[in-house]
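Re-run with default settings, no changes from the original entry. Doing this only to confirm the output is reproducible before filing.
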Amino acid sequence: MKRHERIAMAKEMIRHVESNTEDLAPDSVEFDIGRFTDQKRFEVEKEKIFLSMPQVLALTADIPEPNDYYTTTMAGRPILITRDRDGKAHAFWNACRHRGVQLAEGCGHAKSFTCGYHGWTFANDGRLMGVPIPEAFKKEELAARNLVELPCEELYGLIVVHPKPDGELNAKEFLGRMGEHLSDYGLDKIHFVNHLEQEARINWKHAVDGGVEGYHVPYLHPNTVGPMSGRQFMHVDMGLHHILATPETNILSLKDIPEEEWEEWCGHSISNAIFPNTVLVFGKGIIAMQRSDPGNHVGVCNYMFRVYAWGKKGAPENAEMEKGYASFLNKVAIEEDMKIQSNSQVMMEAGIVPDLLFGRKEANLIKMHRNYDLLSGYAKAAE
């Protein structure tokens, strides 16, 4: 989003604040509870969405230098993301081609990966480099045993991966207007600060929902992000993707300052929901990326929360601020959002509530859930 567009968005939020209005959905909508509890439906979602469509799995900042690597999951399957010596990003199933053992964990710097089971070694561009006792295999067999590579493109500071080795990937087309919006934020110039990952007792959609609706903020976060957030939210529909813009409580102070002197964020923060399960939150000097990857059970996901910052990595003047931001955001995500979402998940699975009601203040959620339903073949559930 270019600066003049941020200014225009800030002016619209100022108008909303002064008139005590906000963006609202045309109507409230009832949704079936099975979207969070039905195991069969969950398996269909994994197959038709997570194992068939592109996803943003990482940022450029996760592998900033040649020979860096980062591991994550896609639909519960381990993924290895690397940057080779020439600077090209790759994505592979994180599994040795001999007996399927996972090759790497966490993140780091490596030109190659050696399997701990039988010592097979692979270059970070996926090539099989070495096999103990190679005469035990046919040459043509080994020639076909490079790592299974997935289509991968790096664009706007995002690393987009298709889950099928033979899948067609056009990251620019997939991101659409969201890509154009993100292209002006300089995501290729940020650095990693902190990582938190855990198995969460929630359906993957719970985490996405919490990232792009502001209705809950004053009630769930009264002592954290609540006091600094206004109530006049803006929702931007970008097809599969969505934006939630939240004014700061002091946004009206911008009226006393010439527009050319407005600070970078123009008095608001932005949550960007990239289909299906990645949320990027932009605030002053800091970025948070949340991913909720579905595993084997409808009520469990692999929850990843990563914090980044602009500016030079390791700058002493920024270190304390970055540490404080990371601690603050982790508290919001785990102690507040995750705790209440887990409670909701357990209650729904117990059959205590028969259905769900999304209100007009939850406009993004209504549109997003309809997209989930349409692409997984459950469109009637949203009507």
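The mean pLDDT is 93. The longest helix spans residues 316-349.
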